[in-house]
Design goal:
The protein is an alpha/beta fold. The protein is about 35% helix and about 15% strand. The chain contains eleven helices and 13 strands. The strands form three sheets. It has a five-stranded mixed sheet with strand order 3-2-1-12-13, with helices on one face. Helix 3 crosses helix 7. The structure holds manganese (II) ion. Manganese (II) ion binds next to helix 3.
Length: about 290
Amino acid sequence: MATYVIGDIQGCARTLQALLAQLSLSGDDQLWCVGDLVNRGAGSLEVLRALKGLGARARVVLGNHDLHLLACSAGAAQGEGDTLSECLAAPDAPELLGWLRAQPLLYQEGERAMVHAGINPRWSWAEATAHARAAEEALRAPGGLETLARYHPSRKRLRLHSDVDLEPPPAWVGDLAWFTRVRVVSASGEVDERHKGGPTEVTRGAQPWFMLYEGRAPFDSARPRTLYFGHWAALGLRRGAQTCALDTGCIWGRYLTAMRAEDGAIFQQGLLEEALTASHQRAHAAERAEGGGA
Ligand SMILES: [Mn+2]
């Protein structure tokens, strides 16, 4: 039995199928996906159907774009460059969205774990797990998606002008920034949402979350040997002491990467669909300036 961990798919269904053909999963092989299954690419619906169709052979964690789809299903607005309408209008949307909503934010099997973006490096592993379970439970509870939509990052500006939304978000909504959006941690220990460049461009006093996480390694024996993550295309493939980054920027015209966990073998598939254009990138930059988006 082999475990293949793959990076951010972002709706690139043809690229995913080509990578799966390369892997030719057999028997009890498992496919782990680090999240951001959907959005930006044209084949989000196909990706959801394919992964759901793999049943227990596919393990998935939720990314910021997956949460964005769930929020849109509960009334949040799509932004420029979003490609989620097909998923929302599909006849099997209730089943697919129900499946997506049931996926964890942090997944662990023995010595391996995965998360979309990262975890708060100040948490012990037990605390990280507890925070993830609490957020997952809240998301699945009645009204969970409405709360998600209400505090969605893309609504930041709107909240400033709305009396009803002035109360601070529940703690689990705040934790979503760690599991699904963090790249860099500020000097004061908060998620720095503005940073999206490479790790060498990090501003003074801030640090990539995984550097802080690995710096604390000797003090927490409960940790898995390897924590796989995605979300940071500018970082690319990076094997750290206790972490492994797998977002190799498929949607930006680069590669979709799979790593075989047992021996570290790498499998890559170049993008087969249309890459995001410069105008898309400018739209994303504008969204980031408002604290939302990718
Ligand atoms: Mn992401």
